[in-house]
């Protein structure tokens, strides 16, 4: 590759060869444009640059059909000439040239010759070094187009090195690893082109289908399979690759099923090359095996639980393990779509040792240790010393390492299988499903290997953790989780750190699945010594509850901790165990498998500590009533973790803080079922957060070297209880001292700049809600300062945190704080990152909610003081955001509705607001009608209802009135999503005066649309929508009755005509509405029967009072209709 400075000629001074003449019937456009380009000479004038721009655009837009006759050498020469014409100081031209290189090479599938390739590579590399950063994406695309054919082409370098004929196994593995990395997706960058995706997929598939070469060791083979599986998963996830061919999908599913069982002890399966779909589950046609006669089974006495329990446990376990190792099973020829397996003993039935009912449940204490016979007891997890095993320590270590790599292959196959399932339609997947789930439930019939076999036989609890996480234990019978729990509990104290980490992973999955489960609550309250005693323990002993307040002078004795009266009444033994793992020194030397612990570290290995912190976070999320007892202890654990040097430990500490803060907030929500005397007192919450703010949390917020930690610290800071925030005590230190300012960092400078403004509005004389002290100022200052961060993770987290703080009662009426927050959010709403914009839009919605809350307070000072110019900025930004992606749009329309509701008459009467109001309402109308996500349209309908609540807006008179009502009536009659229909019906029932519904024709249109919507309230092809039918009818009936209560004399004729056609239908649904008495929903419908019949009475009284012209029968018809409804209703209710 050429690395010299790029000049206007090829290496060696050779001028580029002009493109040869092409046949007139082929490549005419390319030939003509090439000739024009080659005729140009380097020219830095404006006209010269414009001409080059136009030529590049024409070359890119040219239609290069298949067989266009364009020769590769002509393309290469043209690109070299283009590079000669474009100096590197012209960023726009360089960007356009990069697009041209990428387009021509990929469209025409051209491989550039070596001499021209060197020149083009040198040019693009120099462009990366010299051009502006905004051009880099296009330049990288060009660079990829230049080198990918040489790497991934049909005769590319990586294809040759990864071929089966490659003699060096390490070279082959490294080549496949490179291919897998090329298939990774990078956010914001284009993915690998489709032809290369297909080439890589076929290469990975061939590797997975091929057997292990004789000269390849087991670990290298496992790594080869892992890389191939990772590559396919990346293609499915990042490249959104679609498997449309039956043979292609069937071949992939076959190798995935085979890989799921790779290296599994006791199984050796063979699979067909391709799995084919079947319309029905593939039932085995062979008759069930008849039970053996008693005389034939004399040599094999039946399994008896009593007899089994009398056998010495250690011999039984060792014998089972030896049987697994010594049996040399082979798979019988499988039928297509199934992978049948011979299990130990030569029988095709499942081994009795795999039956869950025959697995003894671990007891408590030492007895429990001896009685354990677990499905996880493979040779890699043997609890025997090296002197009892059949191989030396070195051999045992290598065997354990091989099985660890084999487990990674199985896990990679499962992950790839999950990606495959997500990438294909359910109706296509159904034909293959019988190959992965048990298809012979009858007892005594041959069993095919399936996902259930894997669950029972795989010795890795991570496999079980995935099963637990996806099992509906809240719908299944009790004791299933207890069996899993008791089987895995002894392994928490295993000498191998990998086993201990996996066991904690499984326990974490249990406590996070459908939490809280009563069965898990009982398991958490077990005595902490139950099932944990183990002679091979390497974890810290459980310590007394107040250990953290004392400096331990030596190791705790297990006997002392077990017999401690405090420990015996421990609310949750798992929390105590995890705290001990995180902060207590380890008491004995870890085994050789304790990789991951720092050299000379006195604590548990990092994987163990991080997993323990994750389990604590799961418990805080799902079982907070138990976790709250340890609140202050966990606070000190968090401070210790966030004060450590390792960023991963700090990060997990911040995550735990966020979960604890969220749990405290949930307790104090208005709809919380927690009794006040069972909540954590606010005073204790204040102490907890004071500890956090005095600890390392502020330093983590300033740690710009680790933006992920900064973002997590922002999330944690946003989880403070509002009641606690307003009660934070003052302290003597100033904000600058708390911030630990480093003048060299941009973040610290931003924080310092924000201190003055924060103090000025917080401590200004006469300020309505002055902050009590430096800690509150500290929180606000850091968030406002971090909003200027260049890192998008930090900026997104900060935007969200500001959206939380603006809802705090002690801050939301502070005009200056709300204005500062609004400006910060509007700035983030312009960010290039979609995630930042989405968070900023959510916060803008929250801020506008605050405006509405303040508007409803008796004191009008907030509305008077809030800047009209800022309102205009917010409206403009929200309108622009409503045109963004759905993640941004859903909250942008929410903000628009609130802002239009908040506008005061003093704003509306100003000319500069007239145009922006019209534009905002049009944005809402278009969002109501577009085919967007349900949440977007629901929020748009909700926002439209908020607009209708503002009496100062000219609803009913303005030209946009009919458009708004037409949009809502279209949705209420035809939207596929019933929740959106409900919200549109609710919006139609909001105007409180007849004039706001517009003309008689407009009123009639709304009335008829609602009647039609009532008729179609069960018309849906989506079964999931049926559960909303009753709520939809309730809301429509509410809207119809509301319209009747406002009807004028001119409206009655339309109502009469509708009732003559559909009166019986409308009457039946209104009677259901009166009798239902469901709970009040967010639409505001009355929830009691008395309230509902009162609405009908009100409508009847209003119609009766309408002055109708003489001889008009419409009024009488409507009155009779309502009276009949009330008569039938009261007669039926007694």
From TrEMBL:
Instruction: Give residue spans, biased composition: Basic residues.
Output: 304-315
Using the record's annotation, list all stretches that form the DUF4042 domain: 462-520
Compositionally biased spans, kind Low complexity: 292-303
Q: Pfam families from the entry? A: DUF4042
Stretches for region Disordered: 1-21, 280-398
Q: Which InterPro entries match?
A: ARM-like, ARM-type_fold, DUF4042, HEAT6
Q: Where is the composition biased (Polar residues)?
A: 374-389
Protein name according to UniProt: HEAT repeat-containing protein 6
């Amino acid at each position: 590759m050429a690395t010299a400075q790029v000049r206007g000629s090829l290496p060696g001074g050779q001028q580029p060869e002009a493109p040869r003449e092409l046949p007139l019937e082929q490549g005419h456009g390319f030939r003509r444009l090439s000739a024009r380009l080659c005729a140009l000479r380097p020219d830095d004038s404006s006209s010269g640059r414009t001409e080059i721009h136009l030529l590049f655009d024409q070359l890119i837009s040219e239609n290069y059909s298949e067989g266009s006759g364009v020769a590769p050498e002509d393309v290469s020469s043209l690109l070299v000439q283009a590079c000669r014409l474009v100096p590197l100081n012209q960023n726009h031209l360089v960007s356009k040239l990069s697009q041209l290189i990428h387009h021509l090479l990929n469209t025409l599938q051209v491989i550039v010759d070596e001499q021209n390739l060197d020149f083009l590579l040198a040019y693009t590399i120099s462009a990366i070094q010299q051009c502006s950063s905004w051009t880099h994406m296009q330049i990288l695309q060009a660079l990829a187009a230049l080198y990918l054919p040489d790497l991934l082409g049909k005769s590319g370098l990586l294809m040759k090195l990864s071929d089966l004929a490659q003699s060096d196994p390490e070279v082959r593995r490294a080549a496949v690893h490179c291919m897998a990395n090329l298939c990774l997706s990078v956010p914001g960058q284009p993915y690998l082109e489709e032809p290369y995706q297909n080439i890589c997929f076929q290469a990975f598939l061939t590797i997975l289908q091929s057997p292990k070469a004789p000269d390849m060791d087991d670990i290298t083979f496992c790594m080869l399979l892992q890389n191939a599986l990772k590559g396919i998963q990346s293609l499915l996830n990042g490249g959104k690759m679609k498997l449309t061919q039956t043979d292609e999908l069937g071949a992939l599913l076959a190798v995935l099923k085979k890989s799921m069982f790779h290296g599994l002890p006791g199984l050796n399966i063979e699979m067909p090359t391709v799995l084919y779909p079947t319309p029905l589950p593939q039932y085995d046609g062979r008759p069930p095996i008849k039970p053996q006669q008693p005389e034939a089974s004399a040599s094999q006495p039946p399994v008896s639980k009593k007899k089994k329990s009398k056998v010495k446990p250690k011999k039984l376990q060792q014998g089972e393990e030896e049987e697994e190792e010594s049996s040399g099973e082979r798979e019988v020829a499988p039928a297509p779509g199934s992978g049948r397996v011979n299990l130990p003993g030569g029988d095709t039935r499942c081994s009795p040792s795999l039956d869950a009912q025959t697995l003894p449940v671990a007891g408590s204490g030492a007895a429990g240790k001896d009685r354990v016979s677990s499905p996880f007891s493979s040779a890699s997890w043997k609890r025997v010393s090296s002197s009892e095993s059949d191989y030396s320590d070195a051999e045992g270590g290598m065997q354990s390492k091989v099985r660890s790599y084999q487990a990674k292959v199985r896990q990679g196959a499962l992950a790839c299988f999950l990606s495959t399932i997500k990438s294909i339609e359910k109706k296509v997947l159904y034909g293959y499903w019988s190959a992965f789930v048990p298809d012979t439930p009858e007892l005594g019939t041959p069993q095919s290997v399936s996902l259930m076999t894997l669950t029972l036989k795989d010795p890795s609890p991570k496999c079980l953790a995935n099963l637990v996480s996806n099992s509906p234990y809240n719908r299944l019978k009790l004791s299933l989780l207890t069996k899993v729990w008791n089987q895995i509990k002894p392994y928490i104290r295993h000498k191998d750190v990998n086993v201990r980490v996996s066991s904690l992973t499984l326990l974490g999955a249990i406590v996070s699945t459908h939490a809280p489960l009563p069965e898990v609550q009982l398991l958490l309250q077990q005595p902490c010594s139950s099932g944990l005693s183990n002679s091979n323990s390497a974890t810290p002993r459980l310590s007394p509850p107040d250990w953290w307040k004392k400096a331990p002078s030596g190791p705790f004795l297990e006997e002392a901790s077990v017999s401690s009266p405090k420990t015996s009444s421990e609310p949750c033994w798992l929390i105590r165990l995890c705290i001990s793992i995180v902060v207590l020194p380890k008491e004995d030397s870890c085994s050789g498998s304790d990789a991951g612990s720092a050299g000379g570290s006195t604590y548990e290995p990092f994987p163990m500590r991080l997993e323990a912190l994750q389990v604590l976070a799961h418990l805080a999320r799902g079982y907070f009533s138990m976790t709250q007892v340890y609140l202050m202890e966990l606070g000190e654990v968090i401070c210790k973790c966030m004060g450590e040097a390792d960023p991963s430990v700090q990060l997990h500490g911040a995550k735990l803080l966020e979960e604890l803060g969220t749990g405290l907030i949930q307790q104090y929500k208005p709809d919380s079922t927690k009794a006040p005397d069972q909540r954590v007192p606010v005073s204790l919450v204040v102490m907890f957060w004071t500890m956090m703010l005095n600890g390392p949390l502020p330093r983590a917020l300033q740690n710009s070297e680790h933006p992920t930690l900064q973002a997590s610290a922002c999330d944690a800071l946003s989880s403070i209880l509002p009641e606690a925030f307003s009660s934070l005590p003052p302290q003597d230190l100033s904000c600058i001292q708390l911030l630990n300012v480093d003048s060299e960092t941009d973040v610290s400078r931003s924080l310092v700049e924000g201190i003055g403004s924060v103090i000025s509005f917080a401590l200004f004389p006469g300020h309505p809600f002055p902050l009590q002290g430096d800690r509150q100022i500290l929180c606000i200052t850091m968030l406002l300062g971090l909003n200027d961060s260049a890192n998008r993770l930090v900026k997104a987290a900060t935007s969200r945190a500001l959206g939380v703080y603006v809802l705090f009662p002690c801050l939301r009426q502070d005009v200056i704080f709300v204005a500062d927050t609004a400006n910060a959010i509007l700035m983030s709403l312009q960010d290039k990152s979609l995630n930042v914009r989405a968070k900023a839009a959510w916060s803008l919605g929250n801020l506008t909610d605050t405006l509405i809350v303040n508007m409803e307070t008796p004191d009008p000072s907030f509305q008077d003081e809030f800047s009209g110019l800022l309102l205009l900025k917010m409206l403009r930004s929200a309108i622009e955001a409503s045109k963004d992606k759905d993640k941004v749009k859903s909250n942008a329309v929410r903000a628009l509705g609130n802002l239009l509701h908040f506008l005061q008459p003093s704003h509306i009467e100003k000319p500069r607001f007239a145009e922006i109001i019209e534009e905002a309402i049009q944005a809402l109308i278009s969002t109501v009608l577009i085919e967007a996500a349900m949440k977007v349209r629901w929020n748009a309908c909700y926002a439209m209802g908020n607009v209708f609540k503002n009496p100062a807006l000219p609803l009913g008179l303005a030209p946009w009135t009919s458009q708004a009502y037409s949009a809502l009536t279209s949705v209420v009659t035809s939207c596929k999503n019933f929740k959106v229909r409900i919200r549109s019906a609710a919006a139609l029932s909001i105007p409180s005066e007849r004039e706001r519904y517009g003309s008689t024709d407009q009123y009639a249109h709304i009335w008829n649309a609602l009647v039609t919507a009532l008729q179609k309230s069960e018309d849906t092809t989506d079964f999931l929508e049926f559960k909303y039918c009753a709520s939809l009818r309730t809301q429509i009936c509410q809207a119809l009755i509301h319209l009747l209560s406002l009807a004028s004399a001119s409206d009655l004729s339309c109502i009469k005509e509708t009732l003559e056609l559909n009166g019986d239908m409308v009457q039946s649904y209104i009677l259901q509405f009166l009798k239902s008495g469901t709970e009040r929903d967010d639409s505001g419908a009355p929830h009691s029967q008395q309230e509902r019949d009162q609405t009908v009475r009100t409508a009847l009284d209003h119609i009766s009072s309408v002055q109708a012209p003489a001889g008009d029968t419409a009024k009488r018809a409507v009155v009779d209709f309502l009276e009949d409804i009330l008569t039938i209703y009261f007669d039926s209710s007694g």
